[in-house]
Amino acid sequence: MPRRRQSAAPRAVPFEVVEDLDHEPVTPGGPAGPAGDGEPPTSRGDDERGRDGQDEGPPGAGDPPSGRRTVRWTPWAAGAAVLALVVGGLAIGGKIEERRTAARLVASKGGVLPFTGPPRELWSLDTGDHVWMPFGGMLLRRDAAGTSETVAAVDVLTGQEVWQTAVGPQAFCGRDVYWSAFTPDEGPLLCLSGTPDAMVVSVLGADGQVTGSREVGAVDEASGYAVGPGSTVVHVRRDGPVGPPVGPLELYDENGDATFVEAPGGREVVVTLEDALSGDVLWENRVPFVAPTQAWECQVLDDGIEAALMLDQVTSRTTGQVVTVDGCGIDAAFDADGTRLDDPVIRDDEVLPLTPGTVSRFDPSTMRSVVLDRTGSALWEVTGQILRPSASDGTSEDIVVVGTLSGLAAFHPDGRQLWQVSTSGSTLHVHTSVAMVVDDGANGLTAIDPATGRTLWTVPGEDSVYPFGAATDGAQMVVLSRTADGSARSVGYDLATGEVLWTGTDTQDVGMVGYRGALLQLSEKRVSRVG
Question: In this predicted model, which residue has the larger pLDDT, 402 or 63?
């Protein structure tokens, strides 16, 4: 029977090195000489007592010939001093380690500050009639109607409003990463606001005050703006002549009923990266229109009911240093310097940041992943999809996990394979230096040793209970599941042993997500921090 692993609770024991004590004679009066050389006389407690507090006898008894009396450290006093320094070092070192751990968790995707027991509400705010946007450890709020020009920021750890400022109507702040909106963001805070006839970009400082703004121009169905990497905005627009007809495409209405329509041709897209305030063009690229084979990328529901084609629609989003452009017949990804990172020949390949200097490109048609540097050069490749964790404590950056056709494999970021196992998993819930937890394909969980690939523990799945997210503080893992009736359930597990630490109450129509150290509970009407 395998040995039971100890809890993953932090066990770091910091200490301080204590230098050898100086055994040179210490004479009363200090560097200036004995009392009386310009210094007031000392009391008997200072002049005639040893370090152990005992009388040493009359002056001169046992003193060296100079007449100066030597005060010596007794062994137990020296030991007490050393012990005091070590204990003080432990306390200070422990506080420093706690702060470092907290900073690491706050900076990690899905990282939450440590807590024990079922989550309890720490603060709560109404979300009705507001649009909420996460950025930099804050929830940014504006009115849903978009008539107010004010944006307010709420600290996710305290629930307190930290600033509010006038930006403009219909403001959207931060970067649009809709599939992973609570990924920790970097760079300055930029907001786009205004009307379709006159869009404005504003740059906000740490205190929320507008430090600069610029009118960027008009937008319509065939053009748009989005916040780019750093202090930039991405401008996308259709351009050029309409290409040859696409041919028949199958449209589906809200009931799933299909209708064939003849689709006309489309136009290419011009992608421009501009400095947010100066408007200087940093680079510009053109993306050719490629006739779609399916209508979903060109289809909208007009008034939410009738299916229609929008061949000119185009959007952009930024994740880290990768700028992605999507639209009808358009699919491209660029580095922040303008290098094209996707393969123009492959439809629907996915490009995402991997490390600060690399990205991964996944082709779903061949199940092949390629790791590229930021110039677009291939560094290494593997058959399988690189799995990105829902949550991490920031201690696992040196291992890349791949779901292969035969199981799981781990690689160093430079492409060196570390191990390969037959354990399967298509979702990586949590990845830390203690364990990485994947799905088992049957709603259950499997924890794997990141160093060896050895299975640490398993939790069988439950019928009609579907895990969909996770958070971690490095010692425990919070798994978020959806039940058959739509309720949300949270369970805390010890990462090292798989022991169930607590089970939360099922809650209807509520989701949870770890963001910037806070475990947030989200519903249609309220947002709260629990922990």
Answer: 402
Rounded distance between C-alpha atoms, residue 447 and residue 514, angstroms: 20
Best CA proximity match to 282, nearest among 268, 271, 292: 271
Gap between the Cα atoms of 128 and 48, Å rounded: 77
* pTM of full prediction above 0.90: no
Measured CA to CA, the distance from residue 103 to residue 105 in angstroms comes to 6
Q: Is the pLDDT of residue 88 over 60?
A: no
- CA atoms in the 13 A half-sphere facing the CB of 104: 17
CB contact at 8 A, 156 and 529: yes
**pLDDT tens-digit series, residues 192-202:** 999 999 999 99
Q: Please count the other Cβ atoms lying within 10 Å of the Cβ belonging to residue 20.
A: 5
Enter the tokens of residue 451. Answer: 């160093």
Dihedral (CA of 208, 209, 211, 217) sign: positive
Confidence class for position 184, pLDDT limits 50, 70, 90? low
- Taking alpha carbons only, the member of 462, 479, 461 closest to residue 470 is 479
* C-alpha distances out from residue 431 to 119, 400, 437, Å: 21, 10, 7
* pLDDT band per the 50, 70, 90 thresholds, residue 185: low
- Separation CA 384–CA 368 (nearest Å): 5
Show Cβ contacts of residue 355 under 8 Å, excluding neighbours closer than 6 positions.
397, 413
Please choose, from the candidates 224, 233, 223, 177, the residue with its C-alpha nearest in 3D space to the C-alpha of residue 202.
233
Q: How far apart are CA 133 and CA 153, in angstroms?
A: 9
Alpha-carbon span 356 to 220, nearest angstrom: 34
Contact 497, 5 (CB under 8 A): yes
